[in-house]
Amino acid sequence: MQHQLPTHFRNAVPAFDKPHYELPTRNVLGLPVVDTTSEQAVEALLSGAARSVYFLNAHCANLRAKDREYASALARADAILPDGIGVELAARMSGGGLTENLNGTDFTPALLHAASRRGMSVFLFGARPGTAEQAANKLATQIPGLRIAGTLDGYAGAADEQNAIDVINASGADIVLVAMGVPLQEMWIDRNLPDLNARLVLGVGALFDFLAGNVVRAPEWVRKAKSEWVWRLMQEPRRLAKRYLIGNGTFLARAAVHAVQEKSNGAVAKRAMDFVLSGALVLMLAPILLFVAALIRLESKGPAMFRQERVGRNGETFTIFKFRTMHTDAEERLAAIRAQSDRDGICFKARHDPRVTRVGRWLRRYSVDELPQILNVLKGDMSLVGPRPALPREVAAYPGVAMERLDARPGITGLWQVSGRADIGFDKMVDMDVAYVRSRSVLLDVMLLALTARAVISGRGAY
Q1: Range of the domain at 294
Q2: Which residue, of 162, 180, 212, is where some domain finishes?
Q3: pLDDT of 31 above 80
Q4: How far is the C-alpha of 454 from the C-alpha of 463, rounded, in Å?
Q5: What is the DSSP letter of 33?
């Protein structure tokens, strides 16, 4: 049913008073996906850079591969915004990441905040009866000055398509949000865009349900960890298990094939393997990672994640991610215990390091502390297989022969890790890493990954 809010919400004031803005894009799975910041995208869309705007996530990409009508609608979109870690991974497989995740649940309210400052109006169309009205009231509360032109549900209100168009046009809305779910909303917009008077029409999925409180969003720290899909899966396991547990793996495989087809050589094949396997690991292990983070925080104060500058390929530095296994003052205490090192050479390693926490010893024993480095692999700083990532002070003291280690991306595992880890001296570690750099191949990586499982179970050299 249609719901008209008070007239002081509905007086539309067109505000496209700035010059036309271009939306920079990056090719992702053959689609031009917007590659810019949220602020720049908002400015461009409100300045007339596009009319039809859709969001692309892993589920959307899977549907596109099977639904020709939906694929055609996406191809005709004026703008496609990246939604979620899956699209980011697909972009990186093809040679570069995206500037920002522009998911609809966060991006659309930001767009409406800017629209309210311009005196623009918005119409909410879709969802179950009453949901669009509740979402509109929430938006009016959260965004003072936002003009709500009206609402219309996606059931009885959408049954007569021409009547729905007439109601929307009569409202004088500048922006229309369509929430029918993928792919119905995109096909509805694609079919009816020529008859709509609004300057901007967005397909927003479950946004109305989030705003109305029908669906609870994940806590901010879960969203920052890019694990909101895990939260959704926990809320609706029956409905979403196939989409996330099977669909995400299917998407990553499809993205990898696309990347290899774009540019087929050894380096791309290795990179594609890195992304597919590490991406699958992130998806499968996300609940475990969150559990481990909670254990660390329960035992000792401080962040669960440990960040440290390391040296990567060609001597470029990057920030490595690991679970924190030591007390937070570990770096300050290093000088006092350096003489206790069990390893000859530059790298410090002590079997009974007093700085390690009780949880930390368990994490090290089974190499669980290394798991967050999967994120470094996704970012492109590291590979699944490669030389050990060194500290800047270690590289500064390298002998000449050791510099060849820097010709490859550092890895989570490698010859050193599967051969004994901390039980191996520095000179032998360098020899192993140089040997790997000179003979690296996808086949060798596969063999080392298989050997890594045995090394983790045995725990040899892990301390």
Answers
A1: 286-458
A2: 212
A3: yes
A4: 16
A5: E
